[in-house]
Structure formats: C-alpha cells, structure tokens
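Chain A, query sequence.
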Amino acid sequence: MEISVLLDNKTEEDFFSENFFVDISRILFDNVKADNEFLEISLLILDDATIREINRLYRGIDKPTDVLSFPMDSERSAAKYMIGDVVISVDKVKKQAEDAGISFERELAYLYIHGLLHLLGYDHELSEAEEEAMFDLQEKILMQAIESGICS
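Chain A, predicted structure.
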C-alpha cells in the first residue's frame, strides 16, 4: 500500500516530517485492514487562533480545539483515494503534552491517529461502546508506533 500525506505546516515550527505521519498511517491502516493500493491524507498544522476560526465556521464552536477531521465525500470526489483532511493545533499539542508529562511527538501522534480514525468513520460521540472501541484502537496504534520507534 502506498500512503501519501500532504503536509501543510502553517506555523513557524519546522519539526514536522511527512515520513513521521506516513509511518503512523501505515500502522493505522494495517490495524483497520485497509486494502487500498493507495491512500492520501491532507494534514494541516495550525495555531490555536486559526483552528478556532475553522472550528467556529464548520462546527459552530467558537474555541480552539486540538484536532479536526473532514472526511472526503468519496461519491463526489474526483480524488477517489483521498480520504480527507486532518487539522491539528500545534499550540494544543504543546500544552497537552506538557500537561500530561509526555513528549510532543507522542501527543502529536495521538491526535493524528484520532483524526485519521474519524476520517475512517469512527465516532466516539455516538455511544459509549463506539467511544471505547475507538479509544482502545487509538491506544493500540499509538503503542505500536512507540514500539516501532516512530515516537517516544
């Protein structure tokens, strides 16, 4: 399977690598048994102010959030292998990592995995069972990324 992550970093931070996200994506897609030959994800890294505007515009919530997901409508999309957009706030990653006493990379991986799972139809807001299934899978994938040396 070929995976492409179209990384658009709109921050002044320069420590993001497409390979980091591709490696995590590969682990995730192996876990969900994706059998596509090619998958593409758009990833946008923003600050709190910008993600707040997007959150307000698309969800009606006027506050910054850590991650947003916008699945691609495959029936209307010309890019049939594009699964959607993940938007992450670098400010939230930094704060949440610091608050939890974990590495920036680990929190970034966790949020990216969370966003990807939403693109694939997982939704922790539907029911307690869905929430448990999604967060268990998210944790399993994160642990595999850590064991693989992708993040610490």
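The first helix runs from residue 18 to 31. The mean pLDDT is 91.
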